[in-house]
Amino acid sequence: MTTAPTLDALRGALGPAVLEMVDHLPGTMFCVKGADGRYLAVNPTFVERTNKRSRGDVVGRRAAELFVPELAERYEEQDARVLSSGKPLFNELELIRASGGPFRWHITAKMPLRDQAGRVVGIASMSQDVGEAAEDDPAMTSLGAVRAYIDAHLDQPVTSQDLARVAGCSVDTLERRLRRVFGRSPRQLVLSSRIDAAREMLTAKELTLAQIADRCGYSDQAAFNRTFTRLVGMPPGRYRRERRTQG
Asked: Please, what is the end-to-end C-alpha distance for the chain in angstroms?
């Protein structure tokens, strides 16, 4: 029977300066998990986003104890893929939310950690907040037409070529600009815009779920339900009930 790795056992895989360095990355959540899914190390931003007071309130817990259950289930599915394949995970767009906390868009990367024998014994994860703060970048004004185009065409297919034409640049240039300003690829920006619009409609408008799915560019309600649940952590109907109860 193998024992769960300790933080000391994983320091070699991380490098001597990493744990200290990530404490000074505002807006970036960092954590180390053992193969059993328990958090072994977290930075201050991670603690803040879980609505806990200290690292001691987080270390030793699993995702399901810190985040809304449906989102925690997705995080753990990602972990399982990394642990079983031994391959990193990059550029995952996802919402992160602790119970009672706000929804925030993040781009997540996860790396397998190996012991001296080459066995995968844990995961290091970083999630960069690409929420409202990213939209304060002055360079965003050059992409205003892109955002307006997406918002005006939520119910239609939108390609990177469409957005590049609106921005008056090549697809490669658009990709670089969007990643610098919004932290997202063109596809991810369209996806997050649709989900944000759906969340607003669910809260403020008397529309059926099928109508919202149609207005947000989904071919059917089932596809909308799957995508919304995967990214928001709960089905759209439940989201509507909870937001109206809170409001």
From this structure: 50
239: Cβ–Cβ under 8 A, 6 or more apart, which residues? 199, 202, 228, 232
* Residue count of the chain: 247
Identity of the amino acid at 129: D
Instruction: Look up residue 66 and give its two tokens.
Output: 């810190």
Q: State pLDDT tens for residues 175-211.
A: 988 887 778 899 999 999 999 999 999 988 789 999 9
The SS3 call for residue 93 is strand
Residues of the chain with pLDDT under 70: 1-16, 131-142, 247
Q: Which two tokens stand for residue 24?
A: 């000074």
The span from the CA of 95 to the CA of 47, in Å, is: 16
Strands 120-129 and 104-114: antiparallel
